[in-house]
UniProtKB/TrEMBL annotation:
Residues forming coiled coils: none
Organism, as annotated: Candidatus Lloydbacteria bacterium RIFCSPHIGHO2_02_FULL_51_22
Protein name: Endonuclease III
Catalytic reaction list: 2'-deoxyribonucleotide-(2'-deoxyribose 5'-phosphate)-2'-deoxyribonucleotide-DNA = a 3'-end 2'-deoxyribonucleotide-(2,3-dehydro-2,3-deoxyribose 5'-phosphate)-DNA + a 5'-end 5'-phospho-2'-deoxyribonucleoside-DNA + H(+)
Entry-linked PANTHER family: A/G-SPECIFIC ADENINE GLYCOSYLASE/ENDONUCLEASE III, ENDONUCLEASE III
UniProt keyword list: 4Fe-4S, DNA damage, DNA repair, DNA-binding, Endonuclease, Glycosidase, Hydrolase, Iron, Iron-sulfur, Lyase, Metal-binding, Nuclease
Lineage start: Bacteria, Candidatus Lloydiibacteriota
Pfam families: HhH-GPD
Gene Ontology molecular function terms on file: 4 iron, 4 sulfur cluster binding; class I DNA-(apurinic or apyrimidinic site) endonuclease activity; DNA binding; DNA N-glycosylase activity; metal ion binding
Source taxon at top rank: Bacteria
PROSITE patterns referenced in this protein's UniProt entry, alphabetically: ENDONUCLEASE_III_2
Length: 228
């Protein structure tokens, strides 16, 4: 038999601390929302695929034109692959993204009646869709919360705030889901993303940032722990 898989079981104190962090984040960002711009569930799907390894700002610049050129699912189904790839070139990794988007359009038309799937199981059958993207699409398109979307901000700050020591999105998501009540999962994601953009970026995180008391990497925090 193989080794038994470790399951993270946070203490009640760890859960209380995590919830205190959520409360503090919600005070800073009362109405956090996704930065991607879209007007339909399919457009959200496209924008999320384009956002891989690309800033939301750049994606919004590209989709401003893209969504005028391709206005229905059928127009994606019948799009010319090379032309479409050039249309999204500025988002990076555009050949793979084009392949995934156009193949997903075909699958959604044929297998899902032209509607973006509304379950995690179905979402994960589509080309180029992993849990992070599926969580973003399901949460924003349908209000369906089956997990926590772990992007680069969430990964970095989850470790910085002592919520996880893991290094992969899947394992960090598992830790966060164990720590936080399900009703906080969706809001927590976007609060943490906003915090990463506005206060504690990958390039610079001031020692006196608003939530430094939760920052296990903060020199002041480490010093106070050593003095206990």
């Amino acid at each position: 038999m193989g080794a038994k898989k470790h399951v993270y079981e946070p203490s009640s104190a760890e859960k209380r601390r995590a919830l205190m962090l959520v409360v503090a984040l919600k005070k800073l960002f009362p109405n956090p929302r996704i930065a991607l711009q879209y007007s339909s569930r399919w457009e959200l799907f496209v924008a999320v695929v384009l956002s891989a390894q690309c800033t939301d700002k750049k994606v919004n610049e590209v989709t401003k034109t893209l969504f005028k050129k391709y206005q229905t699912l059928d127009e994606y189904v019948h799009a010319r692959p090379l032309e479409f790839a050039q249309d999204i070139r500025q988002t990076g990794f555009y050949r793979n993204k084009a392949k995934h988007i156009l193949a997903s359009a075909q699958r959604i038309k044929e297998e899902f009646g032209g509607k973006v799937p509304k379950t995690m199981e179905e979402m994960l059958t589509l080309p180029g869709i992993a849990r992070k993207s599926a969580n973003v699409i399901l949460g924003n398109a349908y209000g369906v919360v089956e997990g926590i979307a772990v992007d680069t901000h969430v990964m970095r700050l989850s470790r910085r705030f002592g919520l996880s020591t893991e290094k992969t999105p899947e394992k960090i998501e598992r830790d966060l889901m164990a720590l936080l009540p399900k009703e906080e999962w969706f809001t927590f994601t976007y609060c943490l993303i906003e915090y990463g953009r506005n206060y504690c970026t990958a390039r610079a995180c001031p020692t006196d940032h608003p939530l430094h008391a939760f920052d296990v990497q903060n020199p002041y925090h480490l010093k106070s722990l050593q003095q206990r």
